[in-house]
Amino acid sequence: MTPRSFLLSQEMSDYVRACSEPPDQVVADLIAETAEMAERGEVPPTFQIAPEQGALMQALTAALGVRTAIEIGTFTGFSALCIARGMPADGSLLCLDINPETTAIARGYWERAGVSSRIELRIGDAHETLRALPSAETFDLAFVDADKTGYPLYVEELHPRMKPNGVVLIDNTLRRGGVLNPQTDDDRATAALNTALVSDQRWETVLLPLADGLTMLRKR
Question: Do the Cβ atoms of 78 and 49 come closer than 8 Å?
Fold first, then answer.
């Protein structure tokens, strides 16, 4: 499997995955189906999170005792599956996405994994859906993996909706190194966000060199 991190060689990527929690058959099938879609040109090959990132998110969700979570950008459902599996049976995950076709695949795997009762999927513009949610401290965990230029707005809208000590995970915050010399709108937006978050005292911030960069924010 191609490394998702530009920081790792193929050999080191294989080693990392061999020494991490292995995917079960449901996850393996989901990863394989998404990879086949990418090979046919139906979806971009970089939209799905790395297997080791999924393992971390599931373990982190369980370790934090997350009961309420929100995901912005669901794709074929791997990240949501990991979060839902880390929750108790009565946990609640709200997924926001704009694509009914890729999320239809997600629904099938959530059902197969036995976690569909924990997940609510809302199709539409995530900015509008998020703004329409009550501005109350609701969520223990949030995962953001959507339009990169929209990241600052997502973070701003999430802040009042996160519980104290709530954690926000933001994907692709290294942009395959593009944040060092931004050449695209996505790179520039991500680099600006990274800089802004370091001085934003509302959050405790750490940028992890996992996959294509995973920023973790803790609401102070």
Answer: yes
